[in-house]
Design goal:
This protein is α+β, with helices and mostly antiparallel strands. The chain is about 30% helix and about 35% strand. Helix 4 crosses helix 5.
């Protein structure tokens, strides 16, 4: 399986001991575990199985690498060689030059390194979006279940853009969706 993105000149983004690399097949079961543990804030309505995950990597992920304009570009976030999270740019609209930012970290790290890893990840994924792909806007679409995420987005230069009322059902409650966006700076646009 090809593991470099045709649409990217640069494949690895580094920040001290952290690396953002094209999503690795070997991380798929860790990712599945984290997704199953954190379904409450994901657009996932059932627990994934290893068969589901294998099929997704084989039928969807593997095809992304060779596409000039994939709908999503996913990465494994590594500390040294260990995968500690994953995410990327999803729902990419190449015509409008926008993408949604997606990020999920190891469930245990979520409890103790949430702020640090989100800030690090946002800095790295912005380089992909703005410097490499020439996008003009990235945004975070979040179920209003983790308000501690919003100050981190603000620290990273995202601005509150929209609240969509009663968008999802969670534990018999209607939950809003909150959208924060970041635009490429005027100096580089």
């Amino acid at each position: 399986m090809k593991t470099t993105y045709t649409c990217l000149d640069k494949q690895i983004y580094k920040d001290k001991e952290f690396y953002l690399v094209p999503i690795r097949n070997e991380d798929r079961y860790k990712i599945m575990q984290w997704r199953n543990e954190q379904m409450f804030h994901l657009r996932q309505d059932k627990a994934l199985t290893t068969l589901d995950q294998d099929a997704y990597f084989e039928n969807t992920i593997s095809k992304l690498f060779g596409q000039k304009q994939p709908k999503q570009i996913l990465f494994s976030l590594l500390k040294e060689e260990k995968c500690i999270g994953y995410g990327g740019l999803v729902h990419i609209d190449w015509k409008q030059r926008t993408a949604e930012v997606s990020f999920l970290m190891d469930t245990e790290l979520e409890k103790v390194k949430f702020k640090k890893l989100w800030l690090l990840y946002l800095d790295m994924i912005e380089k992909v979006a703005f410097d490499e792909l020439d996008l003009v806007k990235i945004y975070v679409y979040a179920f209003d279940l983790r308000p501690h995420l919003y100050p981190i987005l603000t620290l990273s230069g995202f601005i509150f853009e929209e609240r969509i009322k009663n968008k999802i059902q969670y534990k018999n409650n209607c939950i809003d969706v909150v959208i924060h966006s970041k635009y490429i700076s005027d100096e580089t646009y």
